[in-house]
Automatic annotation (TrEMBL):
NCBIfam families: wecG_tagA_cpsF (TIGR00696). CDD domains: Glyco_transf_WecG_TagA. GO terms for molecular function: N-acetylglucosaminyldiphosphoundecaprenol N-acetyl-beta-D-mannosaminyltransferase activity. Its EC number is 2.4.1.187. This is Putative N-acetylmannosaminyltransferase. Transmembrane segments: none annotated. Keywords: Glycosyltransferase, Transferase.
Length: 282
């Protein structure tokens, strides 16, 4: 995988066909080829944010008009590790993913001494989105945003357009729809034909939505779950100070802002997740 971990990357388009071929040192490397580390009983990708962004944007473009279902990428943190260890149905939803990012500093820290292949850094979706957007502008990958309340997704859409004026943002839709409305939502997404679909419905609803509809999203190149990303893109919520992020204390900052909703969750899942990380990692 030494060549695959290089950032030398090129993508060429086959004229008249609409499909893309990845060339260069990363050619032939797909999500399932990325090395993994077992952390808390979950298979986590050993990859940094920069390389993830390169891969995601280019994988998505390469999948364009391929007739194959989109790649499915999600993320895991302490809450997810704890939930997957206690709920088989949720674990199965994450097992469906082609690649799982480490969205927790403790995961990165434990991997340094517990895993043969340590995870190089945290790949928080709130940061990764911007990395991917930069690459997407360069390679021509298009985005669709799905999730959050109407006013939040519209604010997020407007801010993304301002931040990335050359990004092809082909659609955005709120995440408030009934199960029987899913087929119409899928049709709307397919009509827009985004290379990357960002889904923010919350864990595990977003994973369940993707697992149910992955085969039907036949005009999408790649699907990525986002958690609360749209709250941050819309400036509805703020990130923790950088020093807290570096120390792995972003959860504490978020709990201080929403103690009723998040306080008990973190008090119960964080210790369990740490125990799992220390006993079920390799």
């Amino acid at each position: 995988m030494s060549a695959a971990m290089s950032l030398e990357f090129a993508i060429t388009h086959e004229t008249g066909i609409g499909q893309a071929a990845i060339t260069g040192p990363l050619a032939g490397v797909w999500p399932k080829d990325i090395p993994t580390a077992t952390l808390g009983g979950m298979e986590i990708a050993v990859i940094d944010r920069a390389l993830s962004a390169e891969y995601m944007a280019n994988w998505a473009v390469a999948r364009r008009n391929s007739g194959k279902p989109p790649f499915y990428i999600t993320s895991a943190n302490g809450q997810v590790i704890s939930l997957c260890a206690t709920n088989r149905e949720v674990k199965a939803l994450f097992d469906d993913a082609d690649l799982i990012h480490a969205d927790g500093s403790p995961m990165v820290a434990v991997s340094q001494f517990a895993c043969a292949h340590p995870v190089p850094e945290r790949a928080a979706t709130t940061d990764l989105f911007h990395d991917v957007a930069e690459v997407a502008q360069r390679v021509g990958a298009s985005f669709f945003l799905l999730g959050a309340r109407e006013e939040i997704i519209r604010a997020a859409e407007a801010n993304v357009r301002k931040l990335y004026p050359h990004l092809k943002l082909v659609g955005a839709r709120n995440g408030y729809f009934k199960r029987e409305e899913e087929s119409a939502v899928i049709a709307e997404i397919n009509d827009a034909a985004p290379d990357i679909l960002w889904v923010g419905l919350g864990v595990p609803l977003e994973q369940a939505f993707i697992s149910r509809n992955l085969m039907a999203l036949d005009r999408v190149g790649l699907v990525k779950t986002t958690g609360g990303l749209f709250d941050f893109l819309s400036n509805t919520k703020s990130r923790a100070p950088e020093w807290m992020q570096r120390m792995g204390l972003e959860w504490l900052y978020r709990a201080s802002l929403e103690p009723t909703r998040l306080g008990w969750r973190y008090l119960t899942t964080n210790p369990h997740a740490m125990w799992l990380l220390l006993t079920k990692s390799k």
